[in-house]
Design brief:
454 residues, alpha/beta, Rossmann fold, DNA Cyclobutane Dipyrimidine Photolyase, subunit A, domain 3, 3 domains, 48% helix, binds flavin-adenine dinucleotide
Length: 454
Amino acid sequence: MLNKRVQSNKLTDPNTQGRCVLYWMQHTQRIDQNYALYHAIKKANTLALPLKVLFVIVPDYKDATTRHYQFMLEGLKELQATFKHMGADFCVETGSFDEVLASYLKAASVFYLDDAYMPFMRQTKKHWIHEATSLKIPAHQLFSDTVVPVFQVSQKTEYSARTIRPKLLKQVDDYLDEVEMPKLKKRVNSSNAFSLEEVMNTLDVKVLSPVTEYFKGGETAAFDALNQFFDTRLKHYPKGNDPSTAYTSQLSPYLHFGMLSPVRVYLEAQHYLDQYPEATEGFLEQLLVRRELAFNFVWYHDGFDQFNQMTYGWAYDTMDAHREDARATIYTLDDYLKASTHDAYFNAAMKEMMFTGYMHNTMRMYWGKKIIEWSKNYESAYETILYLNNHFFLDGRDPVSYASVAWLFGQHDRAWASREIFGKMRYMNANGLKRKYAIEDYVKQMNALKKPLK
Ligand SMILES: Cc1cc2nc3c(=O)[nH]c(=O)nc-3n(C[C@H](O)[C@H](O)[C@H](O)COP(=O)(O)OP(=O)(O)OC[C@H]3O[C@@H](n4cnc5c(N)ncnc54)[C@H](O)[C@@H]3O)c2cc1C
């Protein structure tokens, strides 16, 4: 079903002035099940042209911090070696998209691009497809980073998991096609090698979020994490809501950077359906339904990243009704960053976030709900949560980030019994964590974490 993953300009004939097929890699930072790369190689072989793969490192990318760049660059280093081996010209450039892309595009016969979901990237890619049209260059954007392309699942904002689930399940089998990367016929030597250290020194990072030693970037590390999960932890997944366990996959950073294909994860999981049906179905529900609901939200819901547009009418009504409720405790961003609130579970979650770049899902829910409870108003809570989420999580700045933060405020959820501050929005408290989980073990584990290296 590769033809249903593509959005193209209307041009079909390669530009005969072009000296290469160009793939601008940006979202899909891998080889496996990278459909833009697959098509680009096939086209290069048909036209007997070399393949150029361009990656642009934007030194001041919104909300990106040192740990995000380090993780991404580890992956790019590996790709550099892989592309060399494949005979593709892999060019890593630092600068703005506008500065870099024009000269590369002019030399292209056919142009390939990959996924984009956030408004800035959607706009940017649209702009460069338009530029390609002006230069009479066919342009094809291939979507590889959801199992079912977001524009095929549904043509509107889905209300909840309940409404999108049947649509996904009906279509998913059509999108599990596995492609094998063809060999390049016209091999070239890469013209540009980059140094991870040199690039790190040129970055304009505004927020301190140090490199972590807990996740290593790149496609090999992603496959290692995938194999470890399926070999040892998937069978325990039904107990994975307990934050003191490490039973979930921890694949979200790799999915976010496109270092791992969700189709690959889905295909691997299917092998375990007979052996561990409950665990595998539970896992696939998160990977397919919850994750792709988030992509639907970002794609279709105008204002998905704006406080006053991101959730349902009933949630705004209930917030208005409870806006003046007394807040017993108000904390600042600084209190959170020092992990110095009165709540040991919250502080432990902050340590997990700051030291590792990750946080267990149960704690993400608890953490976000507490910030709502301890903020002077809902707007500042929203800002603080998004700020921390996107600067510290390796999987932050993702469609799932925005849908999950909106979920804290009722989006994709239902109304609950009313209570102070939260109104009808779902509430969580420490007693729930104590009752259901080995939460003191979680605190001990987080207190034992090593501090970030740099
Ligand atoms: C307040 C809050 C903020 C969050 N911020 C982010 C974020 O910035 N980035 C992010 O990727 N996830 C976010 N999540 C969702 C979820 O917590 C993480 O995706 C999950 O914890 C990642 O761990 P895992 O890979 O072990 O998940 P697993 O349980 O192994 O699930 C497999 C995959 O399914 C997807 N997934 C899992 N849970 C959810 C969910 N609730 N909604 C949508 N997709 C899901 C992820 O891609 C995950 O890697 C947030 C949740 C909350 C409540």
